[in-house]
Design goal:
The chain is of the alpha/beta class and 148 residues long. It is built from four helices and five strands; from the N terminus they run βββαβααβα.
């Protein structure tokens, strides 16, 4: 019997960009649900989107089959399309500039190798209950970030 796929729903939020930011993640495995959130005082929306995925993957206790749902094309395309080229070019973009958020991309790359991951882009604020929950958690994280 194959292991059940863990569904991960993530979102990031920022009040001002840069500004106070928050991230949220909802992990669902069968009947089990785990909610995570946090924030930073001075950050960007893209960093919070990435942090949500990183923290969710860090929460997994063993290598797993995972389906990540994000409304961030930056994260989804970064992992699925751009990262291989960045690595070949020593973390430089196609026009030779350093990749932004390289610290987080390196963490995401390392965590991605531990799991079998399917990356899914979903439209944000489209009424999908789990994604709406991830959005609410990210906004809760903004409040934590603003308090720091």
């Amino acid at each position: 019997m194959s292991a059940e796929t863990i569904q991960i729903y993530t979102d990031g939020a920022c009040k001002g960009n840069p500004g106070a930011g928050g991230w949220g993640a909802l992990l669902v495995a069968g009947a089990h649900r785990k909610e995570l959130c946090g924030g930073e005082a001075q950050t960007t929306n893209n960093r919070m989107e990435m942090t949500a995925v990183i923290r969710a993957l860090e929460a997994l206790k063993r290598p797993s089959k995972v389906s990540v749902h994000t409304d961030s094309q930056y994260v989804q395309k970064g992992v699925s399309e751009w990262m291989a080229g960045w690595k070949k070019r020593n973390w430089r973009t196609s026009d030779g500039k350093p990749v932004k958020n390289q610290d987080l991309w390196l963490q995401l790359d390392a965590l991605s190798r531990l799991h079998e991951i399917q990356w899914n882009w979903v439209r944000g604020h489209a009424g999908h209950p789990e994604n709406e929950r991830a959005d609410a958690l990210a906004n809760q994280g903004v409040l934590q970030g603003a308090a720091n």
